[in-house]
Design goal:
Strand content: 25-35%
Number of strands: 21
Length: 413
């Protein structure tokens, strides 16, 4: 294994043994091979720097690089945004450790050597985020490489495998050029992703949001605190913000839009699909500290005489989101609330059993103008997972889930 800090600054010699220059930078071309060092940038003082390709490297050791060609075969350096510069873009930079679900700072890069067709190719294997890498950085160019190796060998290693690394690139255009994938970020739990975003700068946070699909972005933003949620949405163009808000539950979207400046809120609402915008507008009429301000209008509503088999078929056919399946809401022939059935009871019932036979007792509901304190008390007293909200005619208009209650109580702490 060799380290990036042992190559940067290394003297480079051509196939004839002539000194060519010193390694100033190491490049990776992610669009080609994500972990291969594709080029070395060789500084030559007052002369234009040269570039040695991966297939022109004969051997590498700490402080020294040998080439397979003479100097005349090397190319002049031309900047390329599609190249990832190890020293500029990685060393001392923050990255996301998707395996450890946290942000860390890079101290060094570990490389392995592979002999291919008489050349030596360097491959990134892991990122050093520990004390050993910090010591190498501190002593680079001051102490001979082999002396540094003896010293850092006594220090505990702390590394991250390269496949678990996600770079923080705030410029979306450059992210595209580098073909940096957001797949690893999308696999994180939204709460973990939000926690990572909270420690980033606004530009870095925005870069992460820009790289995610709308559904993943919506889930992550929903986990941020309200101040950051507003900051993120304000920086998005109205169309992108609308696409993200449409992926949220209507109650979450309504709370977020209400926190935006009036002009921004209007622009975003104009970009939303009609159905989603109508639901959000209806919810925004309620005081946020009432049941109406907490409820989600998306719920499963069926007739009280429906059987368990019919309801399960209905849920499957309509591809109901699991988020709406805490309770099934029952209505009578006048469309008034007739009861609720917890999803656990539904699963345990026989296919022919009517839902009004397994409904939760007592029948509980609140009006939309009920104060949130009373809602909290009902959830606590009856250990509820969901609570129906009704209008003046006792017709269900929404449901409050335990997640909504926990979020509101947490915000009050």
């Amino acid at each position: 294994m060799i380290h990036a800090t042992e190559i940067i600054g290394a003297d480079t010699y051509d196939s004839l043994g002539n000194f060519v220059g010193r390694v100033k930078e190491i490049f990776v071309e992610p669009a080609d091979q994500a972990n291969r060092i594709s080029r070395l940038l060789l500084s030559r003082g007052q002369y234009r720097p040269l570039v040695a390709r991966h297939d022109q490297i004969a051997n590498v050791e700490p402080g020294r690089v040998g080439l397979t060609t003479d100097e005349s075969a090397l190319e002049l350096y031309h900047p390329n945004e599609a190249w990832l510069a190890v020293q500029k873009d990685l060393l001392d930079q923050q990255i996301i450790d998707t395996n450890g679900r946290k942000v860390v700072r890079v101290n060094d890069i570990d490389l392995t050597e592979q002999r291919i067709n008489g050349n030596t190719e360097l491959r990134i294997t892991q990122v050093d985020v520990g004390l050993a890498g910090a010591v190498r950085r501190l002593l680079q160019g001051v102490v001979p490489p082999m002396a540094i190796r003896r010293l850092q060998a006594k220090l505990p290693p702390r590394t991250i495998r390269w496949e678990f690394v996600n770079l923080i690139e705030s410029d979306p255009l450059r992210r595209v050029k580098l073909r940096m994938s957001s797949d690893k970020l999308a696999q994180l739990h939204p709460a973990d992703l939000a926690e990572i975003m909270e420690v980033l700068s606004p530009a870095e946070r925005q870069g992460i949001i820009d790289s995610l699909d709308e559904e993943t972005a919506a889930e992550a933003i929903a986990e941020l605190d309200k101040r950051l949620q507003t900051q993120v949405l304000e920086k998005l163009n109205p169309e992108k913000a609308a696409d993200i808000l449409e992926e949220m539950s209507p109650d979450e979207a309504a709370d977020l839009i209400a926190s935006l400046p009036p002009e921004t809120s209007k622009e975003v609402m104009e970009e939303m699909e009609h159905r989603e915008a109508t639901e959000v507008e209806a919810l925004m009429k309620f005081d946020e500290n009432t049941a109406g301000g907490m409820m989600n209008p998306e719920m499963v509503v069926v007739g009280e005489d429906a059987t368990r088999g019919e309801v399960v078929d209905f849920i499957r056919f309509n591809e109901i989101s699991p988020d709406q399946l805490d309770n099934v809401v029952l209505i009578n022939r006048d469309s008034a609330l007739a009861g609720t059935v917890p999803i656990a009871r539904l699963l345990l019932a026989s296919p022919e059993q009517r839902l009004d036979e397994i409904k939760f007792e007592p029948l509980l509901s609140v009006r939309a103008d009920t104060d949130q304190k009373e809602v909290f008390e009902l959830f606590d007293k009856y250990n509820l997972r969901s609570l129906a909200v009704v209008d003046e005619a006792n017709r269900p208009i929404g449901a409050i889930t335990v997640d909504d209650v926990v979020s509101r109580m947490h915000a009050r702490i």
